[in-house]
Amino acid sequence: MATEPQSPLEPLKTGRFAGRVAFAQLIRDSLAAAAAQDWNQLILCDASFEDWPLNERAVIDSLNAWARGAAHSPSSRPSTTASCACIHGS
Question: pTM higher than 0.85, yes or no?
Answer without folding.
Answer: no
